[in-house]
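step: validate -> pass
step: tokenize input -> pass
step: predict -> running
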Amino acid sequence: MRKKKYSVSTILDTTVTYVILIAISLIFLFPVLWLVLASFSKSGSIYDLDGFFPTEYSLKGYRELFTDTAMYDYPNWLKNTLFVASCSAIIGTILVILTAYVMSRFRFKMRKPIMKATLVLSMFPSFMGMTAVYLIMVNFNLVNRLWGLILIYSAGAPMGYLVQKGYFDSVSSSIYEAARIDGASNSRIFAQITLPLSKPILVYTMLTQFAWPWSDFILPKLLLKDKNLWTVAIGLMSLDDTRFTRFAAGSIFIGVPIIILYFCLSKFLVDGLSAGAVKE
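step: predict -> pass
step: emit ->
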């Protein structure tokens, strides 16, 4: 076998590329490393850090996170966050999948205008409509209610249906034609043919719909005034500087589950995103 020869320019280009990638990785890794180490600080205050890192380490922050709940009830905030994120993920996934399937497989008069309108509206940042959202929630008596948050997250989910539509576009039409010849109805085709073939995009949609409410701060801060209804994002932001260790511990703890889910479901995520990005 011939040995593959590398030119000096190729070796130099590869070396420079890897050096740049490693440098960028270290830049992004440093804040994470600092937050992890700060969560083990013994003093608890951000003002007691010697430079970037703590001088003494302890598990005090993690213990107080779940035991000292008189003023800062982290377990209750975590329960509220899990409830909102789970319900929003389930309802939002159903709405997104149904919207994407209809736009992909059915042809009707307003199909293209609706697609163009949703594409244009999705370009605007969501916080632009916060005043209107708050007034609507007040009129429907949904302020200080977790279900108000869930309805907003779920109602906004279908706006991001384009990736799912691209996935359904890639499914061969011959499968649907064969099902129709056999007498299958639209609902049966969707339930028994489309959904079993759509596991990657279902997992991708479910996880992305879960991640947004799990870490969102703006909407809960706007709508939840009762301290017992706070989510983790609001609760952690209410901690003062002397409880920075608890803040860091809470941030790490809430970030771990979503990271584990991403790693466990990475195959489905890649398959769903790549299949939805191209049309055969």
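step: describe -> Residues 276-280 have pLDDT under 50 and may be disordered.
step: cleanup -> pass
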